Amino acid sequence: MSLPLAPPASAPRAAGAPTRPRKRSQLFTVRAAISRRTYWVLALVGLFTPLVLWAAVGLWGGIDPVFMPAPLQVLAKTWTWATETGLFEDMGISIYRVVAGFVLSAVIALPLGLLIGSFRSVQALLEPLTDFIRYMPAVAFIPLVMLWVGIGEGSKIAIIFIGTFFQMVLMVAEDVRRVPAAQVEAAQTMGASRAELVEKVILPSAKPALLDTLRITMGWAWTYLVVAELVAANSGLGYAILRAQRFLQTDTIFAGIIVIGLIGLVTDQLFRWGHRRAFPWLYLKG
Question: How many domains does the chain have?
Fold first, then answer.
């Protein structure tokens, strides 16, 4: 009579044999790609969690609305502002001031930063002065701007220009300096002139970083809006926030801050979209 065979024992792993790697979550792996669905879920959680906490504080009722109005109160104030007291007009004039100051800054800072980053002689001549001025607070220039430019729209644009220009110059110069020296040396070996080096080697290689610099400095331009609208303004989001401060209208302050944040978020996403469209090869999965 035959006995039942015992199940074969698993063969022992040979010493030094590679082990099967354990499956790790991609969420916390450095630079690992995640699905678009996961990205948007996490983004919505990050955006709405503070809102839920804010609503919970409002429902708790332990804080005076003068210090912390509830989200519904701020939403109601935003609706009143939009339908009765000119929210869209304030948004329009503030967007105009920010864009005008930013564009004026970019038009001058881009070629200047390109020269500073490309030529050591220009760097020695201009970078120390730019470094010196960029630490000066823009608000300190308000009396001089009012004296030199007046109290019209030019003064608001000038403050935003001062707040962004010097930072932008140095960031553009640094982007240009990051262009690999091997590319420049290869072009010089093939007989490229200085103009050709800048136009056909340095500038194309630095373009992705330059667009990112513009995106970052656009955010700085919005942070200087309230400072700019200190200068004899009678309209704009920053002016509305400052006026609400005088009358302890905290709901209006919250509404203005949130509107500025939403405009900034939309602007930032437009820059990101433009970057992906202009440089699609940077987003190809390896």
Answer: 1
